Amino acid sequence: MTTGASIADGxxxxxxxxxxxxxxxxLDLGTNNCRLLIARPARDGFRVIEAFSRIVRLGEGLxxxxxxxxxxxxxxxxxxxxxxxxxxxxxxxVARAVATEACRRAGNGAEFLHEVKGATGIALDIITSAEEAxxxxxxxxxxxxxxxxxxxxxxxxxGSTEILWTSLPGGGxxxxxxxxxxxxxxxxxxxxxxAGDHASGSYARMIAEVAEALAPFEARHGLAGHLRExxxxxxGTSGTVTTLAGVLLGLPRYERRLVDGxxxxxxxxxxxSRQLAGQSIADRALHPCIGEExxxxxxxxCAILEALHRxxxxxxxxxxxxxVREGVLVELMRxxxxxxxxxxxxxx
Length: 348
Hints:
Residues 38-334 form the Ppx/GppA phosphatase N-terminal domain. This is Ppx/GppA phosphatase family protein. The chain is of the alpha/beta class. It folds into 2 domains: 11-127, ATPase, nucleotide binding domain (Nucleotidyltransferase, domain 5), CATH 3.30.420; 130-325, Exopolyphosphatase. Domain 2 (Nucleotidyltransferase, domain 5), CATH 3.30.420.150. The chain is 49% helix and 22% strand. It is built from 16 helices and 11 strands. The strands form 2 sheets. The chain has a 6-stranded mixed beta sheet with strand order 8-7-6-9-11-10, with helices on both faces. A hairpin with a 3-residue loop joins β1 and β2. The radius of gyration is 20 Å and the shape is globular.
């Protein structure tokens, strides 16, 4: 068991843990966000009993310095302390905490993980970009539906963007044909180009750079041709797409239940992206689904999204407010069931 919460040891505690239903936790520490889900298994997957998300900007300044800054690490540890307290209070029995691009790239990433362990008790596992893509897909699989037999799934992060080309053979299964991780995310693009605008041309330059990096993947697989046949679903999971969904739906405040799984007209998404690029940071911050924390970052995400749309202009985009955390939970619960089945079989 990998756990980030302090769980009491001893025979009595072990007996109590065996008797009580298991409580699972998944923590995803990204370049921009720290996200936690605590859940119990349910017939149709799992039931969330607590969720936590905080923008920590762990990767702030990383692209220029190659290291995590003291201020960013302090912000992140504060958020992780809250996560640890929530896991302990909820009696988490099985947990996994993963860290992605910022910790992969930082020269002091291992040192930071050691500091986190001492300050919070959470043992972070730095995962590869391949595992990050796989977990994101596992978390989003319930939103991939017939009659589509293929899907393009993308995850726009703070420091990288993962894109998966998958087949959907049926029965809720997915098979990854190929994937790519681009070194572009909302944090590092914003640091290089600024908050993005039409007047300076920075928005167009961001789109062009990301599109250039995407071109070989499209050339290798010809996804645009598959898309024209109408059997490819395009699904996006990230703060960028969920934020744009909240804006396009006209929500007075962000509501996950209205955003997760919704379908958007992809052309309208691009129109909205360009409108945001034409606004000041102050004007963007006024929208309740953007706010001050995302106002300077959202346009970089819009630029990545528009680069994707240039190659794969689907009529509709499905939005997922789920991803790595949910994928971690799915895998933890599957392993727990497998162990349970194994033990029951041994007892027979």
